[in-house]
Amino acid sequence: VAKQAVEKGFQVATHAIGDHANRITLQAYGKVLGGENDKRFRIEHAQIVHPDDFPLFKKYSVIASIQATHATSDMRWAEDRIGNQRAMGAYAWRTFLDTGVRIANGSDFPVEHANPMFGFYASITRQDSKGWPEGGWFPRQKLTREEALKSWTLDGAYAAFEEKAKGSLEPGKLADFLILSKDIMEIPASEILTTKVKMTFVGGKIVYRSDD
Fold it and tell me: In 10 A of CB 31, how many CB atoms?
């Protein structure tokens, strides 16, 4: 499939969760991509990755298409299933960024809740809604607020070859944006979960307005 996609100009996105699944997907991609490229092949989830394989995402320009709330949904039982050593390569967003890999964030709705505030909160805290565990689960892998916002906007658009039209507010782009009830870049993290959408714009036109 990867070979045919390269020949015909298609993008490939493959679901892979376990470390072996990620490895064989990267190997298949690597055989046809060879090195750095602009094909923007993706691995959806990319949840558990062997330490040796993070550089392969960079080597083949593969996008890690992650869903931050999977970490906070799975953290209570993940180490029991895969062990502490393998868990260090699980939901490892900081490792991706430090390796030079683009990450595109999403919700994985309907498996998880569609509300992007939940994913933004999970990205920067690695905690549940009650603030557990203290300091966050494998806190080294947290994203900054700026990194989380970019993963949900500009890098999400890049992953879909739409960065020239979406992902940031710039002249010539579509003016798809929303207005929130609170500034999620400044408020205490716990307040992010109760932040509401006040207005939504698509193409510069209001398509939703809250009555609150």
Answer: 12
